[in-house]
Write a structure and sequence with these properties.
- By secondary structure, this protein is mostly helical.
- The protein has one domain (3-93).
- 66% of the residues lie in helices and 0% in strands.
- It is built from four helices and no strands.
- The protein has helices spanning 3-30, 43-46, 61-72, 75-93.
- Helix 1 (3-30) runs antiparallel to helix 4 (75-93).
- The longest helix is centred in the first third of the chain and has 28 residues, at 3-30.
- The radius of gyration is 17 Å and the shape is flat.
- The mean pLDDT is 89.
Length: 96
């Protein structure tokens, strides 16, 4: 197993753990009501605003929109994308 496959498997496991945590958290917050509210965790939820406030200073609006999308996208999605990326690297460049 190469380092790329190990990183991919770790990222995949982290994505599934985060997805399970979010689902379990939504189920436990439901309580006695019938409302199931699933909240995604994003980078903006984890970091303080001072670490990504520079995005509003980007002069080009298209790049600013892309940066805001990256910061506000679900973290589980980024973990899955990273896992797929590293597993594809392993598939094409790994030990044979």
């Amino acid at each position: 197993m190469s380092i790329f496959s190990a990183i991919g498997i770790i990222l995949l496991a982290a994505a599934f753990i985060l997805f399970g945590y979010q689902g379990l958290s939504a189920f436990l917050e439901m309580g006695s009501s019938d409302k199931f509210v699933y909240d995604n965790i994003s980078i903006a939820d984890i970091l303080d605003e001072k670490y990504y406030s520079w995005i509003h200073d980007i002069p080009y609006v298209a790049i600013q929109g892309i940066a805001e999308t990256i910061v506000n996208a679900p973290l589980a999605l980024w973990l899955l994308c990273g896992a797929v990326f590293f597993l594809l690297i392993h598939a094409f460049k790994g030990d044979r």
